[in-house]
Every structure is written in C-alpha cells, then in structure tokens.
Amino acid sequence: MKPQEMKEHTKGIFHLSLTPFDKNGNLDIPALKQSIRMVTENPLLENEDVVFLALGTTGEFYAMSEEENKKVIDVVTQEVNGKFPVMIGTGRAGTRNTIEISKYAQEAGADGLLVIPPYYTMPTTDGVIRHFESVAESVDIGITIYNNPAASKLWLPAPVIKRLSKVDNIIGLKENTNNPMAFLGMLQTIDEKDMAVFAGLGHFMYQFMCFHGCKGFVTEMLNYAPHLAVDLYHAGLEKDAAKVREVADKMNLFWNWVFRLAAKHSLIPSAVHPMNQLPNDMPYYQAANKAAAQLCGMPSGAARAPMENIPEEEIPELRQILKEMGCNVVA
C-alpha cells in the first residue's frame, strides 16, 4: 500500500499476532501459519476494519534472532496475502538496524511498519527526530510511531509527534500512554489528515478515547475472544457508552486475572513508575495470551525466556474465566 492508503486503513481492530514456539523453544512455522489462518478465515471478521500487527511486544521480537524475525515477516505477509493490511514491528535500538529490517519488511510485502523510538539509549529530541526521518527516507510504505514509554524509556510529547506527522510517510501513532489527558492532548494536537492515532493500551484506553476521535485499539483477543474485540470497536464507533463499558468489563475478567497472577508471583515494579506497587501485567503478558489462545484451539506454544509461562495450577481458573467471557474453550 502507498502511505496515504495505509493511513486510511489505520483504524479499527489492530490484531496482535502471537509467535508460536515448539516444545523445544524453536520457532514453530506450521503453528504460526495455522494461527494466522484462524484469524484471516474467521467469518466474524468479514468486512471488519482489521490490521494485522506482527512482531511487536506481543510477538516477542526481542527474544528472536533477526533471521527468525525475517522468517515471521515472510510467513505473516504471505499467509495474510492482502486480506487485511499488515503492519510489522521493525523498531530497533539503533537507526541502522531499524532501517535494515524495515527495508526487509517492505520487500517482503508489508503494508506498513511499527517503529518504536530508540531504546536502551536516551537520544536528544533532534536525535529521535533524525532517527524517524532516516527510517522514513529508507522505505516507501507508511510508518506508525510506537509511543511506548514502558519499552523505550521515552514518551514523545505532542509537539514532537506533530513535527514527525508532517513527514510524508509517517502516517500513524500507536499511543501507549496510560494518562487519558495526555492521550486526549495528542488527539487534539495532531491533525487527523496527517496521522491516524489509535490506542496502544487496547481497550483500557479505547473505552475513553473512542469518544474523542481515537481510530481504534490493539488487542490480543482476536486470538481467543474475537466477539469481544468486534463488539467493543462497534460500540465505540456508535458512541454507545453503556455498551463500551459492558464489553470492557468482560475483557477485564481476563486482565484482572493476569494482574492477580503477576502480583502473586512477582514483586518487581515497573521502572516507569517505580513507586507504584500496583500489579502490572508484564511478567505474564505474553504467556497469558498464549495460554488463552491455546485453550481456545489456537496453537501458540510457550513464551520465550526470560518471560515465564503460566503455572499449571493457574490454568483451571483461566479456563473458567474464558468461558465467562463467552469464548469457545476447547481444551
């Protein structure tokens, strides 16, 4: 897709694709293909606004070699095969590395790229802007900025995002702030003709921002609770506050379980808010979604180290929660 075309498609349900690993911890290509087909062939998603998003945090790109990442890029683009737009996470800590994998994704057939700000290091404002401009100059497809302070240590404020939105092929913003006022300020600052803004913290922020012009939300739930993802998106489009709350509360049955699990097994707080002792989902984020998908018949495998997998004694409660959410539990 041309960047402007991709911007028009940057809306709706952003499907977070899981990356399956087999019992030996190796990349499981047959399982990956099957998991993609289970989403692309789901009749519930016919004529829906869906964007495939692979190799972000959910896809565990950080735990794979670049050769493995390239294999996933090839499989995702080939298996989706134009049915939905495909956005590939290509952000790396260094500019050259980001450009290299971004070019590969474009050549493989990706419609767009998801690029996080440089992480590990702490560049200047001009350094960050040059980073994104350099990546944009290296490809001809649309780039979405992944504004995720939990992963990069940086949160790019609205004036910086507005400046980057004027670059021709920077067309989207996956906004991961957990501050509703900051999110609203971004929506009010960015011209929607330049950039499509969607909720990187999924339903947690979409349930508020759908009333203020947010284009959609990322979600893992097309892997195991697609009915809830579709219902929430349409409730947001219709500005139906009661329905938004109802569906979000059902989604929270799963996430509250993840929060309880993390609080039970981990005492390490987030560095983003080190004094915040409230539980977060990160220690079991990938594993919980993989376990839920597996229970609903999607091959997903285990999470790669250093992330831990769900203790076996916790699975019965997850199974019951998925049933309460209306999921098709088969295992």
Automatic annotation (TrEMBL):
The keyword Secreted belongs to this UniProt entry's keyword annotation: no
One annotated GO molecular function: N-acetylneuraminate lyase activity
The UniProt record lists the keyword Thylakoid: no
SMART domains: DHDPS (SM01130)
Keywords (A to Z) from UniProt: Lyase
Top EC group: lyase
Record Pfam families: DHDPS
CDD domains documented for this protein: DHDPS-like
E.C. numbers: 4.1.3.3, 4.2.1.41, 4.3.3.7
Family stated for the protein in its record: Belongs to the DapA family.
Protein name per UniProt: Dihydrodipicolinate synthase family protein
